[in-house]
Design a protein that fits this description.
single chain; mainly alpha; 2% strand; 4-stranded mixed β-sheet; 746 residues; two-stranded antiparallel ribbon; Cytochrome C Oxidase, Chain A
Length: 746
């Protein structure tokens, strides 16, 4: 055990050193926000630093990443505002010069004249005119005219609405706010189109792809992409060798003839946890309804089958709630599982455990409902900018809830950590064969409780690169990292209690799995930050180590086989058939959703062209629901199975399982993936702004593909209905003691 612990500690420490070092580089080398943006010819002040920073706050208040995207991060219906601004500004300048010099539009010129004007444009746009001494950004008078035209265009969109962008009417009407919003959009485009000092690439490493200003992929992105693929192949071979060499070396264990957990002692806190599953099921229902409305906005931007819904629930709010509820219900499922297993781990009911379970339940309800109301009020502009930051809509995908609600949720995480952690610590003191497995579980629980606070490391006026850095600490490292470790160890613990594997083997395997996963996962956080105003180190380390994340996912076929073989141990294992089936599904989607579709968008050369396209949505749905959602559902079923000793009606679960999996497959292959491929081809051949333009997204072919999604959505929704109705019915039976006697419950 000493070797595996040494490897684990070494990997974690060195990985965080690297991640934090890149973080310091991001702070130091982020695009500057000028004190003033001035016109060269007359010293006229166009924008101030206050305009840009408040413009960012205003963008956040109207939905931020839920209304289009910035630097590729955000939603898919409206344009990427950075790419769109750059392209529109370039066209304005080219046409002005063409009219002045040749009395023609740019497109009507011959190739020689086009080339001359394009060279002039590249010099105008890409030359860094930021005066570092005076913190002033200088722009030419003709560029001012282009900026003003763009500002008028975007002001009209946000004040009058835009159906094809799913932006509601009067989203923002205050002229001062509109001016400052445009100042922020200009700054993001300036950072993405202006060379870094003494470099031949922009602050965003030449993202987005825009041929008019020579924004093309950099040699660094190409080189590290190739290196990541080579590294992936190498480590797949190494891991396959390691697996074949070690996977049969586990401690032999005699399979019990009867279920060791059939008559396990029940505790009052476990019964108190059951109500979580009813609320979680209702949240899943609500999330699916919001998902249906949200996806419909991509074909009917202001209405839902003719009903003018956007006045009350615009796309920005339905998408916010859809993504946020996914995080809420999945996290709540895992947290509830931890609390349910806690007395099972310690063998006793800790003091005030029931009180803690009930208090946390009420707190979670308050946070979910309060944050949703705050987001609605924020998007409808009921709050000041500061009030919006704390109680309304922060504007960052998966972290939309206001800072006040974030802090409350963080306190809840600490309470959960203490409630579960003290039970694990008590069990560790027994010093039995499960010690190392429980230590690993305790580490995961502490990490979940503490690392949630990484989402509080930025402030109201922090810059976009800094916010994105800490945002991905939470979204990637917390959700995809430490929750993944928690899930692995939890499943191993349950199987060890079922005597399917020994505690020693489970402990060693869990530590090794966590080491392998975190070796790529911690530094791999940076693969979300290639083109987010970050230095080239993010590309180098992000590409290299995120490729390692995919390595263990390539062997998920073995995990599927092993989980399947568990069902053959003894007849009593069939009691756990459906939880195990959901775990098998997790392994499948881990391989496909996180592995195949994750690596599809992972190398810098791929993400350069397809970040923020529907290819991202493919990965998001198949990994977020396919892996974490299915895992949460499996956890619910395992808890209900442990609580109940009666035979289940398996028909609803069978329909749920196949409905969810087949529906997700159809959703991807009939709609999301084909649309993503069309967008990717357009981005590569014409430029990124064209791939996000309404002309493409409302073209006949893409519209047909969007409507085809309804096939998968219907099948998927049927699966959701059967699962949630089964869980609610089964939970109610357990609450009313119809599934198992609780006479000996403490």
């Amino acid at each position: 055990m000493k070797k595996v612990w040494t490897a684990f500690i070494t990997v974690v420490v060195l990985s965080f050193v690297a991640l934090i070092w890149v973080g310091t580089e991001i702070y130091q080398k982020q695009p500057p926000i000028p004190l003033e943006v001035k016109i060269k010819e007359n010293n006229e002040i166009l924008f101030s630093k206050k305009d840009i920073q408040e413009g960012q706050n205003i963008w956040e208040s109207i939905g931020g990443m839920e209304v289009g995207s910035i630097w590729g991060h955000g939603s898919y219906v409206a344009p990427d505002w950075t790419a769109d601004w750059i392209h529109r500004e370039a066209i304005v300048l080219l046409n002005k010069w063409a009219r002045n010099d040749f009395s023609l539009e740019y497109e009507d010129l011959n190739e020689e004249k086009k080339a001359a004007l394009k060279a002039r444009l590249v010099k105008e746009i890409r030359t860094n005119s930021f005066d570092n001494l005076n913190k002033t950004l200088w722009v030419s008078k003709i560029r001012k005219e282009a900026i003003q035209l763009n500002s008028e265009y975007y002001s009209k969109i946000f004040s009058e609405g835009h159906e094809k962008y799913a932006i509601q009417k009067a989203a923002l009407t205050d002229p001062i706010k509109l001016k400052r919003l445009n100042a922020f959009l200009f700054w993001t485009s300036w950072a993405a189109s202006t060379n870094r000092p003494d470099k031949d690439y922009t602050y965003t490493s030449n993202w987005p792809h825009e041929p008019l200003i020579d924004n093309t992929i950099t040699p660094d992105s190409q080189m590290w992409s190739g290196f990541s693929v080579v590294l992936l192949i190498l480590f797949i071979g190494i891991l396959a060798y390691y697996y074949l060499r070690n996977h049969e070396k586990g401690e032999a264990i005699e399979n019990p003839k009867y279920d060791p957990l059939l008559n396990m002692k029940l505790y009052a806190s476990q019964k108190a946890v059951l109500k979580y599953f009813i609320v979680i099921s209702l949240l899943i229902f609500l999330q699916i309804i919001l998902g249906i409305v949200t996806v419909h906005y991509s074909v009917e931007g202001q209405a839902f089958f003719g009903f003018e819904l956007s006045e009350y629930f615009p796309y920005s709010i339905t998408r916010t709630w859809h993504t946020q509820l996914a995080v809420f219900w999945i996290a709540a499922t895992w947290l509830a599982t931890g609390i349910f297993l806690a007395p099972m781990i310690s063998g006793k009911e800790m003091k005030y455990q029931v009180l803690g379970v009930n208090f946390l339940f009420i707190a979670l309800l308050v946070i979910v409902l309060g944050s949703m109301l705050g987001e609605w009020l924020g998007i409808h502009q009921f709050f000041s900018l500061t009030t919006n930051f704390f109680f309304g809509h922060q504007g960052f995908e998966y972290m939309d809830l206001g800072r006040f609600w974030q802090i409350l949720l963080g306190i809840g995480m600490i309470l959960w950590m203490l409630m579960v952690g003290r039970n694990i610590f008590y069990a560790i003191k027994r010093n039995d064969d499960s010690k190392h497995l429980l230590i690993m579980l305790l580490i995961a629980v502490i990490a979940i409780g503490m690392f949630f606070f990484s989402g509080l490391m930025y402030g109201e006026n922090s810059s976009l690169p800094v916010i994105n850095y800490w945002r991905w600490w939470l979204v990637h490292l917390w959700v995809e990292g430490f929750f993944e470790v928690f899930a692995t160890v939890t499943i191993a613990y349950i199987f060890s209690r079922m005597k399917i594997i020994s505690s020693k083997t489970a402990g060693k395997a869990s530590i090794a799995s966590a080491t392998i996963f975190l070796a790529g996962g911690i530094i791999g956080t940076l693969h979300h930050l290639y083109y987010s105003g970050t230095p080239v180190q993010a590309i180098a380390l992000g590409a290299t180590f995120s490729a390692l994340e995919v390595v263990p996912l390539t062997l998920m076929g073995f995990e599927i086989r092993e989980n399947w073989n568990i069902l053959k141990h003894n007849e009593w294992v069939q009691r756990y058939k459906w939880p195990i089936f959901f775990f098998i599904s997790v392994a499948f989607w881990n391989m496909i959703g996180a592995g195949v579709f994750g690596f599809l968008i992972n190398p810098p050369i791929a993400l350069y062209y397809i970040q923020g396209l529907n290819t991202t949505s493919v990965h998001a749905h198949t990994a977020m629901f396919g892996v974490y959602g299915m895992l949460g559902m499996g956890f619910i079923l395992i808890c209900l199975r442990l609580y109940s000793n009666n035979k289940w009606n398996e028909k609803p679960l069978k329909r749920a399982f196949w409905g969810l999996n087949i529906g997700l497959i159809l959703m991807v292959i009939l709609s999301l993936l084909p649309v993503g491929i069309i967008q990717a081809y357009t981005s590569i051949t014409k430029g990124y702004s064209f791939a996000r333009d309404a002309e493409l997204l409302y073209s006949p072919t893409v519209q047909v593909l969007k409507w085809l999604r309804i096939v998968g959505d219907i099948v998927f929704s049927i699966g959701i209905f059967y699962f949630c109705s089964f869980v609610i019915k089964q939970t109610i039976r357990c609450l009313f003691n119809k599934e198992r006697s609780t006479e000996n419950a403490k």
